[in-house]
Amino acid sequence: MFTATEPLREATHKAHLSPAHEETVKATLPVIGENIGDIAKTFYAGMFAENPDLLANTFNRENQKSGAQQKALAASVATFATMLVNPDGPDAVDMLSRIAHKHVSLGITPDQYEIVYHYLFAAIGKVLGDAVTPEVAEAWTEVYWLMAHVLIDAEKDLYATADVTPGDVFRDAVLVARRDLSDRVTEFTFEVPDAPGAFTATKAGQYTSLGVTMGDGARQLRQYSLVNWDDKGFTIAVQRDGEVSSTLLDSTAVGDRVDATLPAGDLVLGDSDTTPVVLVSSGIGSTPMVGMLSALVAGAGARDITVIHSDVSEESYAQREVTKGLLDALDTQGSTVRRHRSYTGAGERVRLADLDIPAGADWYLCGGNGFLQDIRAQIEASALAPAGVHFELFSPNDWLLG
């Protein structure tokens, strides 16, 4: 599932509050902003108390425990509201694009926005009390539904690209092979026998959400980048991190079945066959880069490609060999290939100024928050003049990198 960002950009920039509501939101944004974290916590607590199935089967409960999901909700509402009342505020398009893709990869449907509205505004009233006058509630209701309708329309378009009704994204996936890449990372290959061709429209860099049944019967969801795909199914790499990944590693054998959603995600390899490509990753962030390299090899054309990866050690770089094989293949096809690796265990750090990197490239980043912030700061301080910088964190609040 994928659409160009232009319709979303147009819809986002057309969103405007009525003049009276704009003044109310502008006046109350500071107090909402100061309390949005508590509002988000109260919202989720209330919604899950009365709808426990949502926590068991839709929301990732580890993200709830860590506070990551609450932080994501708080950031998205505050960012969108700021955009509406401040012409110099943040552009919310990239944030909304990521949210829309995450939502369709979880099978979110329009009716669920009504549920969120009910519990979110109950939480606002509970946290802020008498400060929520009818005028304030009315103004922030408009903020919510402006944002909701932008997302609903974007998600409708995404579902349409796969020719499915909203929410109909789960497919029965059978594990047909697993292979250890390191002591922490294992490659899993699934087939979708009841839905042949379901993954052939995958764009390099996208992910699938896997729904795995936990020991207590809950079906928990987590996104995994697609390493490879064909008309039979797909391959992912799983690192031991969290209960879904641990269940896959410890309790999922060849022949077992899981739920898998149709591919989604807006970190996708661009269509240009002339713009240089720079792929930067740390740790398991190499996974979408492997998918992009596979697509570049399949394209069979000569490209200018730079791969930069940071890991703890050579042994911990789980996708070292597969990356080397793909780069060798690109080299054979006549591509200009640059390879840079650094290992934090040896005290090394990625320093872009020390590397041979072409100017005017499309950059694709995936890794930990601190790593990506460091790389982005280095790009901004350089004369590399990137054509674009695209990133993915695999967390509910990845747009917080701004």
UniProtKB/TrEMBL annotation:
<dbReference type="InterPro" id="IPR009050">
    <property type="entry name" value="Globin-like_sf"/>
</dbReference>
<dbReference type="GO" id="GO:0071500">
    <property type="term" value="P:cellular response to nitrosative stress"/>
</dbReference>
<keyword id="KW-0520">NAD</keyword>
<dbReference type="GO" id="GO:0008941">
    <property type="term" value="F:nitric oxide dioxygenase NAD(P)H activity"/>
</dbReference>
<dbReference type="GO" id="GO:0020037">
    <property type="term" value="F:heme binding"/>
</dbReference>
<feature type="region of interest" description="Disordered">
    <location>
        <begin position="1"/>
        <end position="20"/>
    </location>
</feature>
<dbReference type="GO" id="GO:0019825">
    <property type="term" value="F:oxygen binding"/>
</dbReference>
<dbReference type="InterPro" id="IPR017938">
    <property type="entry name" value="Riboflavin_synthase-like_b-brl"/>
</dbReference>
<dbReference type="Pfam" id="PF00042">
    <property type="entry name" value="Globin"/>
</dbReference>
<keyword id="KW-0521">NADP</keyword>
<dbReference type="InterPro" id="IPR039261">
    <property type="entry name" value="FNR_nucleotide-bd"/>
</dbReference>
<feature type="domain" description="FAD-binding FR-type">
    <location>
        <begin position="168"/>
        <end position="270"/>
    </location>
</feature>
<feature type="compositionally biased region" description="Basic and acidic residues">
    <location>
        <begin position="7"/>
        <end position="20"/>
    </location>
</feature>
<keyword id="KW-0349">Heme</keyword>
<protein>
    <recommendedName>
        <fullName>nitric oxide dioxygenase</fullName>
        <ecNumber>1.14.12.17</ecNumber>
    </recommendedName>
</protein>
<keyword id="KW-0479">Metal-binding</keyword>
<dbReference type="InterPro" id="IPR008333">
    <property type="entry name" value="Cbr1-like_FAD-bd_dom"/>
</dbReference>
<dbReference type="GO" id="GO:0046210">
    <property type="term" value="P:nitric oxide catabolic process"/>
</dbReference>
<comment type="similarity">
    <text>Belongs to the globin family.</text>
</comment>
<keyword id="KW-0408">Iron</keyword>
<dbReference type="Pfam" id="PF00970">
    <property type="entry name" value="FAD_binding_6"/>
</dbReference>
<dbReference type="GO" id="GO:0005344">
    <property type="term" value="F:oxygen carrier activity"/>
</dbReference>
<dbReference type="InterPro" id="IPR017927">
    <property type="entry name" value="FAD-bd_FR_type"/>
</dbReference>
<dbReference type="GO" id="GO:0071949">
    <property type="term" value="F:FAD binding"/>
</dbReference>
<keyword id="KW-0560">Oxidoreductase</keyword>
<keyword id="KW-0813">Transport</keyword>
<keyword id="KW-0561">Oxygen transport</keyword>
<dbReference type="InterPro" id="IPR012292">
    <property type="entry name" value="Globin/Proto"/>
</dbReference>
<dbReference type="InterPro" id="IPR000971">
    <property type="entry name" value="Globin"/>
</dbReference>
<dbReference type="GO" id="GO:0051537">
    <property type="term" value="F:2 iron, 2 sulfur cluster binding"/>
</dbReference>
<feature type="domain" description="Globin">
    <location>
        <begin position="16"/>
        <end position="156"/>
    </location>
</feature>
<keyword id="KW-0001">2Fe-2S</keyword>
<keyword id="KW-0411">Iron-sulfur</keyword>
<dbReference type="GO" id="GO:0046872">
    <property type="term" value="F:metal ion binding"/>
</dbReference>
<comment type="similarity">
    <text>In the C-terminal section; belongs to the flavoprotein pyridine nucleotide cytochrome reductase family.</text>
</comment>
